[in-house]
Specification:
Elements: E1 9-12, E2 20-26, H1 38-47, E3 55-60, H2 65-77, E4 80-86, H3 94-101, E5 105-109, H4 111-119, E6 135-137, H5 147-162, E7 168-173, H6 177-186, E8 191-196, H7 204-214, E9 223-226, H8 239-252, H9 261-273, E10 281-287
Parallel strand pairs: 2-10, 3-4, 3-6, 4-5, 7-8, 7-10, 8-9
Antiparallel strand pairs: 1-2
Length: about 300
């Protein structure tokens, strides 16, 4: 059942994270094809549409985890869907091939158009040949206020798995919706540390505040946003980061991608080596998935665990 998805919380023992008790919330295992927490963000926006037979419309890049999840969700629920993809006509990816097989329509938009989609709430209407009352817009990355309610449920799952709310939640940040949702679910019981996956990310403070307000939650200040672990920018990958990711996969058997979760775990490793946390701090690192994106890069096989036969 799409709306009943949950994921395990795995205890991790590794010398990469000295001094803390670490668990990884395995949202990469939420669905057999959709790797990540995007289903959490889609849960309540899509529940609100049940019985309405909508045509879902959203935006993303050639390897968008959100678009990939949306295509699966639409297929599961029997909804039509269209993706506005930032790319030149004819550009393709394995992710887009998946989406087409699931029945999603793909429309390409240029950089300027994509920028307007971000800046103007109703601009998406101009990117479709026709718009009907059935067309429903979902924002980039699934970062709507309603998305926070689905993400907030992750906190209760973690508390049940490990017996209590942890001292710290650690997660990667893109739109800020996952961080806002965890803050809402934790209700100040835990510190939340977010790691921006791209440079110049200070504006996320304001986005997190606005998402919480629009979703009906109070403003929380029990978080820290780390903006210096982007390794050059979005989808930029350093040799140090890759070496760390390979080491992590080798030690734990947990698959990684270096665009989001890899950067978050590298930041956690750095904090541990700096003795940032008090001894025996209970930390839950949220694996937000996105593993399907590895298919577009030559390093992909090195970040998947080797299975014994």
């Amino acid at each position: 059942m799409f709306f009943a998805s949950s994921s395990p919380c795995q205890r991790v023992y590794s010398d990469l994270f000295p001094g803390i008790d670490l668990w990884v919330k395995r949202d990469d295992l939420l669905h057999s094809q959709v790797s990540g927490n995007k289903f959490r963000k889609l849960k309540y926006p899509l529940m609100a549409l049940q019985g309405k037979h909508p045509h879902l419309v959203s935006m993303g890049g050639l390897w968008s985890n959100h678009i990939h999840a949306l295509a699966h969700a639409a297929a599961i629920l029997g909804y039509a869907s269209t993706a506005l993809i930032r790319a030149a006509d004819g550009m393709d990816s394995a992710m887009l091939e998946d989406c087409r097989r699931l029945g999603m329509q793909i429309r390409y938009v240029g950089r300027e158009c994509y920028r307007q989609l971000r800046d103007e709430p109703d601009y998406w209407r101009q990117c479709l040949p026709e718009v009907s009352p059935q067309h429903v817009w979902l924002p980039e990355g699934g970062g709507s206020p309603a998305a926070l309610h689905g993400v907030a449920e992750l906190v209760a799952e973690v508390s049940t798995s490990i017996g209590s709310c942890p001292d710290v939640f650690m997660l990667a940040c893109g739109t800020g919706a996952t961080m806002a949702g965890v803050l809402a679910g934790a209700e100040r019981k835990s510190q939340v540390i977010g790691v921006a996956a791209f440079n110049n990310a200070d504006y996320l403070h304001n986005d997190i505040k606005n998402l919480l307000q629009q979703a009906g939650y109070p403003e929380y200040d029990n978080y820290r946003l780390l903006t210096d672990f982007h390794h050059g920018g979005y989808a930029k990958i350093s040799s140090v980061l890759m070496s760390f990711c390979k080491n992590f996969v080798s030690q734990t058997g947990i698959p990684l991608e270096p665009v989001y979760t890899g950067k978050m775990l590298f930041a956690l490793h750095t904090l541990c080596m700096q003795a940032y946390f008090p001894e025996r701090t209970r930390v839950v690192a949220i694996h937000t998935g996105g593993l399907q994106g590895n298919r577009g890069f030559p390093y992909s096989s090195s970040l998947m665990p080797v299975m014994n036969t």
